[in-house]
Amino acid sequence: MEYKDYYQILGVPxxxxxxxIKKAYRKSARQYHPDNNPGNKQAExxxxxxxxxxEVLSDPQKRQKYDALGSQWQQYQRTGGxxxxxxxxxxxxxxxSYDANDLNDLFGDGGFSDFFMRIFGGAGSGRPGGGNxxxxxxxxxxxxxxxxxxxxxxxxxxxxTLQKDGQKLEVxxxxxxxxxxxxxxxxxxxxxxxxxxxxxxxxxxxVQPDPHFERDGDDLKTEAPVDLYTLILGGEAMVNxxxxxxxxxxxxxxxxxxxxxLRGQGMPQLRDPQQRGDLYVKVQAKxxxxxxxxxxxxxxxxxxxxx
Length: 307
Description:
There is one protein chain. The protein is α+β, with helices and mostly antiparallel strands and 307 residues long. The protein has three domains: 6-91, DnaJ domain (Helix Hairpins), CATH 1.10.287; 143-208, HSP40/DNAj peptide-binding domain; 214-306, Urease metallochaperone UreE, N-terminal domain (HSP40/DNAj peptide-binding domain). It has nine helices and eleven strands. It has helices spanning 6-10, 18-32, 41-57, 60-78, 100-107, 114-120, 153-156, 228-233, 293-306; strands at 143-150, 158-164, 167-173, 182-185, 201-208, 214-216, 219-227, 235-241, 244-250, 259-262, 279-286. The strands form four sheets. It has a four-stranded mixed beta sheet with strand order 6-7-11-10. It has a three-stranded mixed beta sheet with strand order 1-5-4. The chain has a two-stranded antiparallel sheet with strand order 2-3. It is elongated, with a radius of gyration of 29 Å.
């Protein structure tokens, strides 16, 4: 049986934190998801491997057992042992924890690898992975699916259209979601067994960065050019926000780099979308160009006055 290096599959070191593992899994899941790689069998295989690796490394108990196995496996290899001579029996699980149908629902034909099923799924019943199958009603497994949405969609919320078992599934994303927010879609996980209820589908949100706005909690940061005359004399400058153009009051003698706060022009709060954060605008000086002779003369006069 082939040993699976789950750390290598996710591209993380063995000292990786749970947060590192979560980020690496989400990256792999997005990259190799079948919806993004239709008909690509190699991407599908990598997607299954990433899910299998995450299933083990994100569970502290499974990870502890896997690390102990890996330590013995590496020691066995260093002594020149052959893979077919390693004693896998001491690592075999004796009770069934996973059902092959659940795995096929999530990953398609094939489910988890033989390695996973031998170590974490049980052995000895004649089913894939063997073991004693659980009796009585059993709730279906929950699924987790990473989703990316643009920052601008967070302002008003949006509706996602997903494909599941050949059917379209519309999911509403509320305003104010953040990276890491989860949306539960009830009953869209794996089917239950023996009359047990279906699991749920959890959409894990990643908010894409915006080229013009930086998010800080419910607040936003941006930069805006203001003409020289408004900076000196004061007035109003038009600023682009996620809600469109708004007027910003500029005090007289405003220095470039000053930050002006626009109340209520930030992101909506997730629990109360009527409440919003603020927009912090860093002022940039927009100097006049292509001056006429008269304008240059006036600036020279001003320079002399200032001296």
